[in-house]
TrEMBL record, chains A, B:
Protein name from the UniProt record: TetR/AcrR family transcriptional regulator
Gene3D superfamilies, alphabetized: Homeodomain-like, Tetracycline Repressor, domain 2
Entry keyword Transcription regulation: yes
Domain HTH tetR-type, chain residue ranges per copy: 9-69
Length: 213, 213
DNA sequence: CTCCTTTGTGAATGCCTATTCACACTATAG
DNA sequence: CTATAGTGTGAATAGGCATTCACAAAGGAG
């Protein structure tokens, strides 16, 4: 009874946010119209005043995630100009994002999100590719700066960048937080950093990040 | 009518295999008792003669996957004694496994597989950890052999090993095969190889795998 | 103030699902 | 041959789900 009436713009935003939150905490499988509605204080059918279907709500949630990823890239680019430092910062931001929104990222890589829906699959694929392209851009720029070895494809590097975090994130969630993503991120970064950095000089033996432990 | 009667041992095997195949092709979301039964030529209720629940069938499928992963490790250990070569072979086997069984691996990392079921979550976590431990073993042995740099933790390396493939596998599936996992695997391996190999001599400039392209 | 559009309600519908159960068949042990 | 345990059948149950629809309230435009 008597939930206050809000304009559809506000409601759409609210619904997407709530759906995002529910996915982050309970997983996408548990996301139902009823649950979203109840969380807001509405009745399920009310959601259809603002979204035509559950699919549309999911699309809105995915947009939220995609935007956030690109925001992270933008943030690190403003914070530093050195490519390696940018990547390191981005890694940290990504991990923070994961930790703050448990299951959220998994949705992007999850099957449910696009099981039957080919249109959404394409959208998701594009979203990930866009993120990867931004990372590759940073890498390419690092190669021009001479801080990243020139004999690797930026696309490969960006893919491995993702690989530094994503499986770890899953393990973190699987283990109920026992597995330490942050720690892993730091260790993985050292290895990754060494792998992609330009050899310093022709051969001067310098390897400042290859110190023990 | 009249599907021949088989012993429960054979049926269990058959059901697990069929369920695995269905997951690989249609994804776990589409896996239903009805579908499994129909594929075999049975009626849904017949499955309950051999498994107490759908969950038990899923467990059997996960065992299939886990076994296969460990088999891969065993195979590469028999095929070579050099740690780096073993890892390279394992990478290739893993990619083949992915290509042959599309969605199968995703299940292990997928949320559906353990959304509510904490027992299975633990089983899956253990399964992955076992696989990672085996890889870490190879790494540690490579460090003793002197072919892998000693200043990295084997656990970190094994995690990154997984990271070389898993996100790529997802992209491959998302893109309907457009994204080339095999190619990515090769390029990523070069980078990974350089990252973990022991420095050759104090400083002789040798970097045989750091050639362009 | 009144009308009409927008937003919220509650019940109903229809689909898909896992699971159960009484029954039927069949092979084999005795 | 016959009883019995093991296996397959078909119908029925029950729960969850997205979605629809006729109706109610609310609030701004005129």
């Amino acid at each position: 009874m008597s939930t206050e009436k809000l304009t559809t713009e506000i409601r759409k935003e609210q619904i997407a946010q709530v759906a995002f939150g529910l996915i982050a905490t309970h997983g996408i499988k548990k996301l139902s119209m009823g649950r979203v509605a109840r969380t807001i204080g509405l009745v399920p059918s009310a959601l259809y005043r603002h979204f035509a279907s559950k699919d549309e709500i999911l699309d809105a949630v995915l947009d939220l995630i995609g935007d956030r990823l690109l925001e992270n890239v933008k943030a690190v680019c403003e914070q530093s100009t050195d490519a390696l430092e940018r990547l390191n910062l981005l890694l940290k931001l990504h991990i923070i994002f994961i930790r703050e929104n448990q299951g959220a990222i998994r949705v992007v890589f999850s099957e449910d999100a696009h099981a039957d829906n080919p249109a959404r699959r394409r959208r998701l694929y594009d979203m990930i590719q866009r993120y990867l392209a931004k990372i590759a851009e940073i890498v390419a720029q690092g190669q021009e700066q001479g801080v990243i070895r020139p004999d690797v494809e930026p696309a490969t590097v960006s893919m491995m960048f993702l690989g530094m975090i994503q499986p770890a994130a899953i393990l973190w969630q699987m283990s109920d937080g026992a597995f330490d993503v942050t720690k892993h991120g730091e260790k993985a970064w050292k290895l990754f950093h060494d792998a992609i950095q330009a050899k310093v000089g022709p051969c001067d033996g310098t390897h400042d990040s290859a110190r023990r432990n």
